[in-house]
């Protein structure tokens, strides 16, 4: 079953896009909490009026955010029993859907025959889940964590129709990204990735503390507890950090992509740090990419970017 994001009623077409998301993104109008609670009653205990009188949740509460994700995936994408282990990265669904929509624009087709590879699918498996549901693509998710893959396997098992579209592979060598994952004579139309963006666990913890402080200020709180916060988006181990951080990881990915240049049409990745874009583009051209694109995505005031490169003539 695919989710039709292209044909909407005249009423929905007349609504203005408020959040700067991709035009096909189902979340352009924000969250309808009443409808979400109806389709996913477990969310009800987390929904209450915010200071402006609108229904919302406490976005600093990890359980509330995880439950919201499960409700969004159930209501909008017919994905049942989505869950992640405590502390695992909890992805913002609208932004992740945006990546998939822009990738659909990039490859120029929503043909169900499209094959996508997700590097570092994590415990949430969000990109293949959305790609399967929105566009009906064939997807492979890879990760070095067998625990993460086991959790995604459980999600797939709860949604039997996904079994023929979404498969999982373990990366047994953390020195490689595509090697051991892309099989001989196998071809992917596109690869996606949300890379670990910190260079150390300490750096990741400090970033988490800063985000906790920002959330507290937004709620009007003066202080944040100094202990390591259990923040809404979570993240652990390879999900958040690797030696050398985002730049070194993506440089390794770019170099290794050259080896698999004939087995994947478009290689893509989120790039969280703007300063990393220029050196990565330079490296892409150095290793022989014939086209490099920078895709800008907006969600409210937040701007994120995807770099895409291809060796295809």
Brief account:
With 313 residues, the protein is α/β, with parallel strands linked by helices. Helices cover 34% and strands 17% of the residues.
Give a structural overview.
With 313 residues, this protein is an alpha/beta fold. It has a domain at 87-198 and 239-310: Vaccinia Virus protein VP39 (Rossmann fold). It is built from nine helices and nine strands. It has helices spanning 10-13, 33-39, 62-77, 93-107, 126-135, 146-157, 201-218, 245-259, 277-286, and strands at residues 48-49, 55-56, 115-119, 138-143, 166-170, 188-193, 264-271, 291-299, 302-310. The strands form two sheets. Strands 5-4-3-6-7-9-8 form a seven-stranded mixed β-sheet, sandwiched between helices. The protein has a two-stranded antiparallel sheet with strand order 1-2. Helix 2 (33-39) crosses helix 3 and helix 4 packs across helix 5. The longest helix has 18 residues, at 201-218. The protein is globular, with a radius of gyration of 19 Å. The chain starts with 9 loop residues before the first helix and ends with a strand. Residues 5-17, 203-217 and 219-233 have low confidence and may be disordered.
Topology:
Elements lengths: L9 H4 L19 H7 L8 E2 L5 E2 L5 H16 L15 H15 L7 E5 L6 H10 L2 E6 L2 H12 L8 E5 L17 E6 L7 H18 L26 H15 L4 E8 L5 H10 L4 E9 L2 E9 L3
Parallel strand pairs: 3-4, 3-6, 4-5, 6-7
Antiparallel strand pairs: 1-2, 7-9, 8-9
């Amino acid at each position: 079953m695919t989710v039709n994001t292209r044909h909407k009623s005249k009423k929905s077409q007349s609504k203005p896009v408020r959040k700067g998301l991709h035009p096909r993104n189902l979340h352009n109008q924000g969250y309808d909490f009443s409808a979400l609670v109806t389709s996913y009653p477990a969310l009800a205990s987390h929904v209450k009026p915010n200071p402006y009188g609108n229904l919302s949740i406490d976005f600093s509460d990890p359980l509330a955010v995880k439950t919201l994700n499960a409700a969004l995936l159930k209501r909008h994408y017919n994905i049942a029993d989505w869950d992640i282990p405590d502390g695992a990265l909890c992805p913002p669904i609208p932004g992740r859907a945006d990546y998939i929509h822009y990738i659909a624009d990039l490859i120029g087709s929503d043909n169900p025959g499209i094959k996508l590879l997700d590097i570092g699918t994590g415990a949430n498996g969000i990109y293949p889940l959305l790609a399967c549901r929105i566009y009906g693509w064939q997807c492979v998710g890879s990760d070095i964590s067998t625990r993460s893959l086991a959790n995604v396997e459980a999600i797939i098992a709860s949604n039997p129709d996904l079994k023929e579209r979404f498969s999982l592979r373990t990366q047994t060598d953390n020195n490689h990204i595509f090697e051991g994952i892309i099989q001989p004579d196998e071809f992917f139309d596109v690869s996606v990735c949300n890379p670990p963006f910190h260079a150390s666990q300490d750096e990741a913890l400090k970033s988490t503390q800063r985000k906790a402080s920002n959330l507290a200020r937004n709620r009007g709180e003066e202080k944040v507890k100094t202990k390591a916060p259990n923040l809404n988006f979570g993240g652990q181990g390879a999900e958040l950090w690797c030696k050398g951080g985002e730049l070194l990881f993506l440089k390794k990915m770019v170099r290794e992509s050259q080896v698999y240049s004939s087995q994947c049409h478009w290689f893509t990745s989120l790039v969280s740090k703007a300063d990393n874009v220029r050196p990565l583009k330079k490296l892409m051209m150095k290793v022989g990419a014939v086209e490099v694109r920078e895709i800008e995505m907006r969600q409210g005031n937040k701007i994120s970017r995807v770099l895409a490169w291809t060796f295809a003539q």
